[in-house]
Each structure stands twice: as C-alpha cells, then as structure tokens.
Amino acid sequence: MTRIITLIGGKGGAGKTTSAINLAAALTYFGKKAIVVDANLTTPNVSLHLGSPIVPVTLHDVLKGRNHITESVYLHPSGIRVIPSSISLNAIKNVDPEKLEYIMQDLHGLSDFVIIDAAAGLGREALAALKSGEEILIITNPEISAVTDALKTIKLAEELGKKVLGVLVNKTNPKNMDMPPDDIEAMLENKIIGIIPEDRAVKFATARKDTVVSMYPNAAASVAYKRLAAHLSNENYDEPLYQETADKTVLEAMADWVVKFLGLKD
User: Fold this and answer.
1) Over 90: is that where the pLDDT of 174 sits?
2) Considering Cα of 107, then 113, then 116, then 122, what sign does the dihedral take?
3) Which of 11, 226, 244, 260 has its CA 20 to 30 A from that of 170?
4) What is the CATH number of the domain that holds 212?
5) Using H for helix, E for strand and C for coil, what is the string for 47-76?
C-alpha cells in the first residue's frame, strides 16, 4: 500500500524541501521505498538540492501530457527516488497544477511512500499539492509568523477533508528564543511528531548535493529525521549515538539541546 504524504506549511523557507528529501532518505534507511515529488512548479528546489538540475523528463512534461509519470522517476545515490520539476522558466507555460492530483494516483503500488514537496504559500500550486496528498504533514519553524501560516494551512486541509498527521518543527535552536512546543501545539491544535534541530551538517550535506541522513547518519538532524520516519512507518528505532562532534558526543549535544529547548536550563 502506497502512502502519499504532502509536506506543506504556508511559509517560505520553513525547510519543506530539506525535510522532504531527508524524510525520504530516513524511510529508505528502514528499508522502505520512497519517491519525492517536487510539486513546486515555479521555483523547484529538489533537483538543486540533490545535484540533478537538468534531466530529460520532468513533472512539467508529465503535466503537459508528453510523458507518463513513471518516465520522470530518477534514482539518487542516497537510495531515494525523485520526480523533479523543471527549473526552466519556459517550462511553466501551459502547465495546469490541477492535474497533479490525478497523476499522483499512477504512483500507487510503485513505492511505499510518496512524499510531495509543496510550494510555499497557499496559492494554486500549493493547493494542488495539498489536494494531491492523502495525508498531510505540516512543516513550520518555531516562530509566530511561521506557526500562523501553518494554522491557515491546517484549516484549509481540514476543509478539504485531509488527514493531518501532525506537525514537524524545523530549525529549532534554544538560543533563538524559539516558540515553546506546547504553545505551538496549542495554537495549531495538532501534535508535534518531529522536532529538527538546527544542524550545520544539513548545510554540509546540501553543499555536497546529498541528504544529511545519508552523509552524516549520526548527526542530530539525521537522528531526528529517522525518528520521524520510524514513527510514520511503525518501526523501532533505538540506534546508539557515539559519533563525536567538535567538543562533545552527538548524544550529549542532543541531550543538552533538548533540556534547553524545554526551558529546563539557560
């Protein structure tokens, strides 16, 4: 059975693309097949993140009826499969985002998970991605503007009868006066099912056109993505963490971060 999950949150820069590719990589870690669909038709980023900006067939070609969706699937060295959108400005012409919902149905049976990376905002593209997902994962940052946009997205998802799986809070850092998790859950009336800390390893992996889960499997962000993937796929995850960072083990660093994030330590 294929699960089609749209990652969406409203606010731009919340880390939807990073979360999409790393969640897929984390699912692959547990032996699941995962396809990432770049549904950001005007400003796509998935192929840029993974080092394949130009490919023969893109989602734009599929939406225009030139190719079948299976012809636009590419295998990344990390093990995830990707359906990229074209970065060409000309490719946007005569593309109907509304067709996405129907095209996604052809991916059933080809993968365990289909992860749709939605465009920012709540415009036509984002709405098409929202409609295309059978389940919705809300992506936000721990700041009031991002959480407010996430709330609008949740309300729209509920109006469309979509199942909201929960909230993923990205780029958390106790030094930045983050909005407390309890306040985020209270405002969104949904449970936080993943918290991704700010982690330089993510930037290093992006610079090398790879996922942080693949390149730095014991990094704090990688562990958080694997925990989210384990939650979504009902897998047990208790991998010990002993890889050293600059001045302490990853386990110590994570423990210290959690304590600070919860306000138990200055």
Assistant:
1) no
2) positive
3) 244
4) 3.40.50.300
5) HHHHCCCCCCCCHHHHHCCCCCHHHHCEEC
Contact 22, 103 (CB under 8 A): no
Residue 251 has pLDDT above 70, yes or no: no
β partners of residue 5: 115, 135
Q: Is residue 73 part of a domain?
A: yes
Q: Is 90 exposed, middle or buried (0-12, 13-18, 19+ CB in 10 A)?
A: exposed
Q: Which residues contact 165 (CB under 8 A, 6 or more apart)?
A: 5, 135, 136, 137, 193, 232
pLDDT in tens, 75-84: 999 899 999 9
- Cβ atoms of 136 and 9 within 8 Å: the answer is no
In a domain, 82, yes or no: yes
* Location of structure tokens 């889960």: 213
pLDDT at residue 10 is higher than 80: yes
Among residues 160, 145, 155, the alpha carbon closest in space to that of 188 is found at: 155
Instruction: Name residue, tokens 């949904």.
Output: 190
Q: At a CB cut-off of 8 Å and minimum separation 6, what does 242 contact?
A: 218, 249, 250, 251
- The answer to the question of residue 45 being in a domain is yes
Q: Is residue 266 in some structural domain?
A: no
Domain that holds residue 240: 3-261
pLDDT for 129 beyond 90: yes
pTM confidence score? 0.88
Give the number of domains in the chain: 1
